[in-house]
């Protein structure tokens, strides 16, 4: 007698859905491109194309690299969808600008602290 199996039904992964193929239970793509990431995957598919995404995924050495690579692919797709001119570079530019603004603010705070310390030493 066969033991009772718990069947976990999941939606087809984003890659199989895009390729219009059956997503098998042991589909490796489902780990990295689950159904919940369909929108992001479609953006990446438009940018790279599924054959290129598959080739890129084969270049990863282990599970950790594959996971990071899949996240990177999905983020690139999103970046180019949101900003078709600058893509991920636009995000980096914005982050650099935010860092520069925070550095200016931090420098101002350091100057204020220095001034307060100077006043305290002088007993003012
Ligand atoms: Zn699949």
How would you summarize the topology of this molecule?
Layout: H1 14-19, H2 29-32, H3 38-48, H4 50-58, H5 63-82, H6 87-122
Helix pairs in contact: 3-4, 3-5, 4-5, 5-6
Bound molecules: zinc ion.
Structural overview:
α3 (38-48) packs across α4 (50-58). It is built from six helices and no strands. The chain folds into two domains: 10-82, no CATH class; 85-124. Mean pLDDT is 91; it is low at 1-7. It has helices at residues 14-19, 29-32, 38-48, 50-58, 63-82, 87-122. The longest helix is centred in the last third of the chain and has 36 residues, at 87-122. Zinc ion (ZN) is lined by residues 12-13, 15-16, 23, 27, 29-30. Zinc ion (ZN) binds at residues 12-13, 15-16, 23, 27, 29-30.
């Amino acid at each position: 007698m066969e033991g009772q199996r718990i069947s976990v039904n999941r939606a087809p992964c984003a890659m199989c859905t895009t390729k219009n193929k059956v997503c098998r239970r042991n589909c490796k793509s489902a780990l990295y491109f689950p159904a919940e990431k369909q929108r992001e995957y479609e953006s990446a598919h438009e940018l790279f194309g599924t054959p290129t995404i598959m080739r890129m995924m084969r270049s990863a050495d282990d599970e950790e690299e594959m996971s990071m690579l899949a996240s990177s692919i999905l983020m690139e797709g999103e970046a180019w969808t949101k900003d078709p001119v600058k893509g991920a570079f636009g995000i980096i530019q914005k982050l650099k600008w935010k860092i520069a603004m925070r550095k200016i603010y931090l420098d101002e705070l350091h100057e204020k602290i220095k001034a307060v310390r100077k006043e305290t030493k002088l007993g003012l």
